[in-house]
Amino acid sequence: MSVAVKKIRMGFVGGGEGAFIGQAHRQAAGLDGRFELVCGAFSRDARNNQDTGAALGLCASRCYSDWRRMLEAERALPVDQRMELLIIVTPNHLHAPIASQALSAGFHVFSEKPAALNLAELLPLKAVLERSDRLYGLAHTYLGYPMVWQARQMVRDGVIGSVRKVIVEYPQGWLSEDVAGQGNKQAGWRDLPEQSGLGGCIGDIGTHAFSLAEFVADQPIQHLCAMLNTHVASRQLDDDAAMLFKMADGASGVLIASQVCAGEENPLKIRVYGDKGGLEWRQEEPSSLIHRSLDQPMRVLRSGVGQPWLCDAATRRMRLPAGHPEGYLEAMANLYGDFATAIRSNVDGNVAPGVPGIDVGLRGMAFIETVIASHRGDTKWTELVCPQ
């Protein structure tokens, strides 16, 4: 007879009514029934905060006016009642301060990316994490897709041979106009360096493309040559980026990230070519992985439970038979599932297997700062150095 595993009690900072990403996190966390929402500090607006909590079935006493009060009050509760995991879905400038305090208070942390505003802020957070016995994860959601793991395994297995070329692109169109000036709050804070960090587009979506390239190609980017643009005159930060890069094992690559590609939605795409073939994956059609070969017809691998040609890492991240689409929420749910397994398994260290952690955050932040340095400098190649 199986023993019931208790749900993990989670709390939210941010994600009040009207915030897309908070709702996405709650839906993803609830998909497999392993989490239970017990508290939140959802918004600085008192009405929004209470309305959000009430809509989610929370009692008013556990809808806190700010995150500091929530950490203090939850820590004072009996162990079997208090929050175990804190979810951070605020603007970027609060990610590191909240995570640091939560870890110090004894809570696990799962945060939206980026991990901090800059490397100088992130390094102290890493030190706090390493002194704790808690887990830390980052919501690099695209690394939760099953066919991304399939692509990585095929690279590792040598199916396409030695990797020579990586092309990754992430064009969006939602910032083609001055939507911040029209009152769009999500666009507004993303253009404030004090809330978003030094990178605009490159920090918001360029880091997703960067992490995807390193994950699938299974090697780090070491040097890059970048150009940034700001096409909408009222903006402070970049809304368009392009670069060449060189990877550790000799592959060369191209990365494009833009939020002014009018008409585009969310077509993140990666192509990886070796000396024997290539792979292509597109986020808007995530169930398909294209495999091209030098001496065979092109084939399309499709996701789905029970497909014998898929690797274990991909298969265990699927829930439905072939032909039943699984998308963004399921990919995020995979990160939550791996995080839940790590918490309940009491894994050693601060990393939940399968979940991007502090090292991915460090590389993402080093990437942003290297891109900016390359754009501002006059050398051909700028080395990407990631502190340990």
UniProtKB/TrEMBL annotation:
<dbReference type="Pfam" id="PF01408">
    <property type="entry name" value="GFO_IDH_MocA"/>
</dbReference>
<dbReference type="Pfam" id="PF22725">
    <property type="entry name" value="GFO_IDH_MocA_C3"/>
</dbReference>
<dbReference type="InterPro" id="IPR055170">
    <property type="entry name" value="GFO_IDH_MocA-like_dom"/>
</dbReference>
<dbReference type="InterPro" id="IPR036291">
    <property type="entry name" value="NAD(P)-bd_dom_sf"/>
</dbReference>
<protein>
    <submittedName>
        <fullName>Predicted dehydrogenase</fullName>
    </submittedName>
</protein>
<dbReference type="InterPro" id="IPR051317">
    <property type="entry name" value="Gfo/Idh/MocA_oxidoreduct"/>
</dbReference>
<dbReference type="InterPro" id="IPR000683">
    <property type="entry name" value="Gfo/Idh/MocA-like_OxRdtase_N"/>
</dbReference>
<feature type="domain" description="GFO/IDH/MocA-like oxidoreductase">
    <location>
        <begin position="150"/>
        <end position="280"/>
    </location>
</feature>
<feature type="domain" description="Gfo/Idh/MocA-like oxidoreductase N-terminal">
    <location>
        <begin position="8"/>
        <end position="138"/>
    </location>
</feature>
